[in-house]
Write a structure and sequence with these properties.
Its EC number is 2.7.4.1. Belongs to the polyphosphate kinase 1 (PPK1) family. InterPro entries: PLipase_D/transphosphatidylase, PP_kinase, PP_kinase_C_1, PP_kinase_middle, PP_kinase_middle_dom_sf, PPK_C_dom2, PPK_N_dom, PPK_N_dom_sf. With about 725 residues, this protein is of the alpha/beta class. The chain folds into 3 domains: about 5-30 and about 530-720, 2-Layer Sandwich (Endonuclease, Chain A), CATH 3.30.870.10; about 40-335, polyphosphate kinase like, CATH 3.30.1840; about 345-530, Endonuclease, Chain A (2-Layer Sandwich). Helix content is about 35%, strand content about 20%. The model is unreliable at about 1-15 and about 260-265 (pLDDT under 50).
């Protein structure tokens, strides 16, 4: 058995070397015990698509889910598929936990992705577009227009579109043009009327113009024409004297992953900027074309782009359904989710109406756990930082920043604090995928204002969500700490579900002081009291907790493990859960995206249940709870159960100690896992099945709606008191 004093300390003080996995477990596990992570990711995006297909959802939200699916799939190809291909080409080992060759993995990805993209296209043409039309929103084609409508649109084309179009010819004097990633293009075949020679031209559909051109309104009924339709039916203006033979839409996806050998560079920012420039010219990995594209045009694209037939996706209807983001913003409240205004957390509500809360006093009174977006980010995290920036007693502010925006009030507050003479440290992760360029810009803005900007550790991404404020009170220094599960981003905080813990606990303050020293200087800290920190200790800390539950089960005591993450891939964690299950531990896993666990394996995982919940908010928080023989422990933080999070990132989990907070986390978890709650259930073959209707055909509980109501009820109770 593990020593109880080590467990009480939050597992951070133990010498990791005294926990040997091989000695801890003696049971054998079957070889074929993991689900493929890439196919599991595609299954996650299928769940997004199922929301778009659901007629019970507001129709503009369904259009939004179609756009999310398209955006998700783009990133999957740009990063995951591109990474697999790069490793194959360069001869590097391809990480796979299912014992198959990388070529077989790519073939399976291609088959599933082709099927999903066809289903996605059909969901638009057969389900969502007709549903939009039924409520007065029509997306039509050129052939559906009247003569007067075509004339009005031609005037718009001449005034607003034609001047920014740039047709590029392909002939001996003009080599095949560069095709930017994710751009929508027209491949045009023309004949020179004078010589009879056939030529090819490429025309990029301008991304800065509205994707859907409004044709006209009649009350609440509005009609739109896709921009590429408007352009393709006015090509004669671009090629005067030429005969337009054919035109087809196509779209290219490139490898846009970023790889930097940090050990070999002297200046991370310069190296990253160079790599971002290279990203624009990454090799092609997917070509999307219309089903009607002729073979001659397709063969030319395949040849010039150096792409394989397997990487060609023939799709019916419109390409690039990310454009549906525009339609989903139409101001028709009855076609959206009912509005929800976040409440101020009870502890941060001002004592007097129209008064201003003293957040420092509230946190001194006891730890505060906030749940976004049900509880407001603006009146908690943002207000806390803004108060700290103005408070003359605050001496120092330290914060990690992974994804935010240059115009963010978070960045402004840090600048205000620095200009007020406070010591301010911002640890900016410039390697945050697809936010690299933006992060460089506002990091330099912070530096100019006098903020000490640090770019993290070599070889590691700093992903933890930490805010540490040092305040002088009665001649003593007090630490105010915030540890969250989500980014310090006011915009996404309204859409992402996350938890954050505010505390003045001295142990947490000392832990954060040591961790920030390690991140900004040369300190090497091995011991933390209430934090579990990756890459050195987090995995083993969790393995200890899981193994303790296993021992409780073997001793005949109740044992339960609850884990909520975005992704569950790490083999050591999964194997520990398998062995706990074998010992009789009840294991509940609540995962949004990828999951490599196989529940229901005889003799291995019968005690493991896996659920997934998707809805109006993106489930983003990470929760780890353990029954601990009747004295439950819970952690929240930024880490997913993936190799990159546990081995190549700085991550942090904090132990939640207030019993009411632990109960709140476990109650939320149990509601999510209940058979009366709408969710997807993972079967032993890796198939996710949606359970959203009861036996009587009535809708099951919506977790997010229920949580919204619970938070509002807490506020009303406080108001009555």
């Amino acid at each position: 058995m593990l020593e109880q004093d080590v467990l009480d300390a939050g597992l951070g003080d133990a010498d990791d070397d005294d926990f040997d996995l091989d000695e801890a477990y003696d049971s054998q596990l079957p070889d074929n015990r993991y689900l493929d992570r890439e196919l599991s990711w595609l299954a996650f995006n299928q769940r997004v698509l199922e929301l778009a297909e659901d007629p019970a959802l507001p129709v503009l939200e369904r259009a939004n889910f179609l756009a999310i699916f398209a955006s998700n799939l783009d990133e999957f190809f740009m990063v995951r598929v591109a990474g697999l291909k790069r490793r194959i080409v360069t001869g590097l080992a391809v990480p796979t936990n299912v014992g198959r060759s990388p070529h077989d993995v790519l073939a399976d990805i291609s088959a599933d992705a082709h099927e999903l993209q066809l289903r996605h296209a059909d969901a638009w043409t057969s389900l969502v577009a007709p549903a939009l039309s039924a409520v007065g929103i029509d997306v039509v084609g050129w052939d559906d227009l009247s003569k007067s409508e075509r004339e009005a649109l031609y005037d718009y084309f001449q005034a607003q579109v034609f001047p920014v179009l740039m047709p590029l010819a392909v002939d001996p004097a003009h080599p095949f043009p560069y095709i930017s990633g994710l751009s929508l293009n027209l491949a045009i075949r023309i004949r020179n009327a004078r010589t009879g020679r056939q030529e090819f031209a490429r025309l990029k559909v301008p991304s800065m113009l509205p994707r859907f051109v409004e044709i006209g309104r009649d009350g609440e009924r509005v009609r739109y024409l896709p921009l590429e339709d408007l352009i393709s039916h006015n090509l004669e203006d671009l090629f005067p004297g030429m005969e337009i033979l054919d035109h087809h839409a196509f779209r290219l996806t490139r490898n846009e992953d970023v790889e930097i050998e940090e050990d070999e560079t002297e200046n991370l920012i310069q190296a990253l900027e160079a790599e971002l420039l290279r990203r624009r010219f990454g090799p092609p990995i997917r070509l999307e074309v219309g089903v009607d594209m002729d073979r001659l045009t397709l063969d030319l694209l395949i040849s010039e782009l150096d792409i394989t037939e397997q990487e060609v996706y023939r799709l019916p209807g419109m390409l690039d359904l990310r454009g549906l983001f525009d339609l989903s913003r139409i101001d028709r409240p009855e076609l959206h989710y009912a509005p929800h205004v976040p409440t101020t957390a009870v502890a941060f509500q001002p004592a007097e109406q129209n008064g201003r809360a003293d957040l420092f006093a509230a946190i001194r009174a006891g730890d505060v756990l906030v749940h976004h977006p049900y509880e407001s980010f603006a009146t908690s995290v943002q207000a806390f930082l803004e108060q700290a920036a103005k408070d003359p007693h605050v001496l120092a502010i330290k914060q990690t920043l992974y994804r935010t925006s240059g115009d963010s009030p978070i960045v402004k507050a840090l600048i205000d604090a620095a200009e007020a003479g406070k010591q301010v440290l911002a640890l900016v992760e410039v390697k945050a995928r697809f936010d690299e360029a933006a992060n460089i810009v506002w990091a330099r803005k912070l530096e100019k204002a006098g903020v000490h900007v640090v770019y993290g550790l070599v070889g590691l991404k700093t992903h933890c969500k930490l805010l540490h404020v040092i305040r002088e009170e009665d001649g003593m220094l007090r630490s105010y700490s915030h540890i969250g599960t989500g980014n310090y981003n006011p915009k996404t905080s309204r859409l992402y579900e996350d938890f954050g813990l505010f505390t003045t606990d001295e142990q947490v303050g000392r832990d954060l002081t040591r961790l920030f020293n390690e991140l900004s200087g040369y300190a090497i800290e091995k011991k933390f009291k209430r934090l579990l920190v990756a890459p050195l200790h987090l995995r083993k800390g969790l393995l200890r907790q899981i193994d303790r539950e296993r021992h409780h089960a073997l001793d005949g005591k109740p044992a339960h493990v609850r884990i909520k993450v975005n992704s569950m891939v790490d083999e050591q964690i999964i194997d520990a859960l398998y062995r706990a299950s074998q010992a009789g531990v009840k294991v509940d896993v609540w995962v949004r995206g990828i999951c490599s666990i196989k529940p229901g394996i005889e003799g291995v995982s019968e005690n493991i249940t896996v659920r997934s919940i998707l809805g109006r908010y993106l489930e983003h928080s990470r929760i780890f709870a353990f029954d601990n023989d009747g004295d439950p422990q819970a952690f929240i933080g930024s880490a997913d159960m993936m190799h990159r999070n546990l081995d190549r990132r700085v991550e942090a989990l904090v132990r939640v100690t207030e019993r009411a907070h632990v109960k709140e986390l476990i109650d939320l978890f149990d509601l999510a896992m209940s058979d009366s709650t709408s969710s997807w259930h993972l079967g032993d073959e890796g198939v996710w099945t949606r359970h959203h209707l009861g036996e009587n055909g009535k809708a099951l509980i919506d977790l997010q709606d229920k949580t919204m109501a619970s938070v509002q009820r807490r506020r009303r109770v406080r108001a009555v008191r």
